[in-house]
Amino acid sequence: MAQAVNDANFDEIVLKSDKPVIVDFWAEWCGPCRMIAPLIEQIGEAYSDKALVVKCDVDTSPDIARRFMIRNIPTVLYFKGGQVVDKQVGAAAKSAFEAKLTALLQ
Asked: CB under 8 Å to 94, separation ≥6 — which residues?
């Protein structure tokens, strides 16, 4: 299961990671978020040795959502070296999420 991040631990877990990080911004009430959740989990398991995959609930962590200007969910941000380097807004196929991650692993 993907690790949960929040307003309190986001910087420590995501920004200071030595691996690329995928952050899935979601909410319990969001249908498309629930639709991609299993895909995000599968990617987290498949790439666990190369990348970190985490989830951030926008309802319980509004400061982080505001900080990264999350206007629509699901939004998946890709971090490398503590910086946002790519994003996917809305539901997408597993291959779309993996392609963006694979690019970061080069």
From this structure: 39, 42, 43
Q: What is the CATH number of the domain that holds 68?
A: 3.40.30.10
- How is residue 6 written in tokens? 């929040």
- The first and second tokens of residue 62, run together, are 């509004």
Helix, strand, coil: what percent of the chain each, to 5?
Answer: 35, 25, 35
Model confidence pLDDT, tens digit, residues 25-81: 999 999 999 999 999 999 999 999 999 999 999 999 999 999 999 999 999 999 999
Catalytic-labelled residue, pool 2, 13, 14, 33 = 33
Structure tokens at 78: 């890709």
Which is catalytic among the residues 13, 30, 58, 77? Answer: 30
Question: Total domain count for the chain?
Answer: 1
Q: Would residue 56 show up in a list of annotated catalytic residues for this protein?
A: no
Confirm whether 30 is a catalytic residue.
Answer: yes
> pTM higher than 0.85 for the full model?
yes
